[in-house]
Write a structure and sequence with these properties.
The protein is of the alpha/beta class and 389 residues long. It is built from 14 helices and 13 strands. It is globular. Bound molecules: NADP nicotinamide-adenine-dinucleotide phosphate.
Length: 389
């Protein structure tokens, strides 16, 4: 029997529960997709708190080297202390492997509870630039020598007074970073026959970072006249053709748009922070963070992980929804060229939800439905792999 090597990093907190619930689903999907002729060989790595406890470092050399060599991994969420302790291992992984594209598909599966009247029209992919903006992590604590120097420098250069007791953060966004990210997303949109790309920015206020992001993305889109055209050109000639339309929305407006007219949106192209906010907000439209998968992709390496964090209050309770992890696995198998495996997983998740077998987060918004445990949900999905397909 052939084996497919898959590298996984078990998460912290409730990350352990979702891993246990998902593993059997992935194994079953590979077996079914290849008629029993292939199976998974798991390569287990550690990172974050577990690695710190066991090996005295957050990202052991072996973890980094194995991910680099194998070029792909699936990981659970890792805890990052707020306001102190260590910096985010999740962010560090994205930087060290230059995973500049964060992809977060927001797809409605029938049966999911939603605050919208017609959630079935939602099929949005949020692409978030993954290495710049606030992910550069440039900050100085209030009262430090560095914070004071930056405050003095700004006063000297611009005359702007900043209160001495301020913490300082800097958000760089570069032309090169924006262009390579935009090109990647355009390539994806063309290959996957998407219809609209919307640039989401706050360029009215942050002109040289978010405003520049908008302009550089538009300039990049103009390199592809055969495949893309600007919304204003599309409106002017009023002729429908197959080309992808590119438009832009200011971020605050975008939050309203996704609630009132989600059907008008397809791909959202976002700088780092906007993409972060929007992916959780959009997840809320299709059932919540428990069903929102994600991928971090670079030119060499890709790491797949749920959008949510380690949900510490549910750690070890076998309660949280493993769907976002399961669907992140489907994204990974598609990335590795195992499309049939991905389809089997997605179909089985949908059938399970349609059968009203759901965890607490979905059950609380569905009348008369009792929640099942995280592990039970995993078993039910595994049972439905390949059912009537
Ligand atoms: P979180 O872990 O995403 O949890 C926030 C809330 O979202 C939960 O309390 C729960 O809401 C809901 N939720 C999240 N995952 C769920 C699931 N699988 N099923 C059902 N509900 C789910 O966010 P956080 O509490 O802000 O962050 C906790 C830690 O995770 C922090 O250390 C943070 O830095 C880290 N984090 C890591 C990643 C990553 O590894 N990529 C991403 C984000 C955050 P209810 O309580 O309403 O049920």
């Amino acid at each position: 029997m052939d084996t497919i090597e898959i590298v996984y990093i078990e998460g912290d907190g409730a990350g352990e529960d979702i891993w246990r619930a998902s593993k059997g689903i992935f194994e079953e999907a590979i077996l079914k997709a290849y008629g029993g002729e292939k199976s998974i060989k798991w390569i287990n790595l550690i990172a974050g708190q577990k690695a710190l406890d066991k090996e005295g470092q957050l990202l052991p050399k072996q973890t980094l080297e194995t991910v680099k060599n194998k070029k792909c991994a699936i990981k659970g969420p890792l805890t990052t202390p707020v306001g102190g302790g260590f910096r985010s291992v999740n962010v560090y992984l994205r930087q060290v492997f230059d995973l500049y594209v964060c992809m977060r598909p927001i797809r409605y599966f029938s049966g999911l509870p939603s605050p919208l009247k017609s959630p079935e029209s939602i099929d949005i992919i949020i692409f978030r630039e993954n290495t710049e903006d606030i992910y550069k992590g440039i900050e100085w604590k209030e009262g430090t020598k560095e914070a004071k120097e930056v405050i003095d420098f700004i006063k000297e250069k611009s005359g702007i007074q900043i209160s001495d007791d301020s913490g300082i953060g800097i958000k760089p966004i570069s032309k090169r970073g924006t262009q390579r990210f935009t090109r990647w997303v355009i390539d994806y949109a063309i290959k996957n026959k998407r219809k609209i790309i919307t640039i989401v920015h706050k360029g009215n206020i942050m002109k040289f970072t978010e405003g520049a992001f908008r302009q550089w993305a538009i300039d990049t889109a103009k390199e592809f006249p055969k495949y893309l055209r600007l919304e204003e050109d599309r409106l002017k000639d009023d002729v429908l053709d197959e080309r992808i339309v590119i438009n832009d929305r200011i971020a605050d407006n975008m939050f309203m748009q996704i609630i009132l007219k989600p059907q008008d949106y397809d791909i959202l192209l976002c700088p780092n922070l906007n993409g972060d906010y929007l992916s959780d907000a959009c997840a809320g439209l299709i059932g919540g963070l428990g069903v929102a998968p994600g991928a971090n992709i670079g030119d060499d390496v890709a790491i797949f992980e749920p959008t949510h964090g380690s949900a510490p209050k549910y750690a070890g309770k076998d309660m949280i929804n493993p769907t976002s992890f399961i669907l992140s696995g489907a994204l990974m198998f598609r990335h590795l060229g195992h499309d049939k495996v991905a389809v089997l997983i997605e179909d089985a998740v949908e059938k399970t939800i349609q059968s009203k077998i759901v965890t607490y987060d979905l059950a609380r918004n569905m009348s008369g439905v009792n929640p099942v445990r995280c592990s039970k949900f995993g078993e039910e999905v595994a049972k439905r792999i390949g059912e009537n397909s």
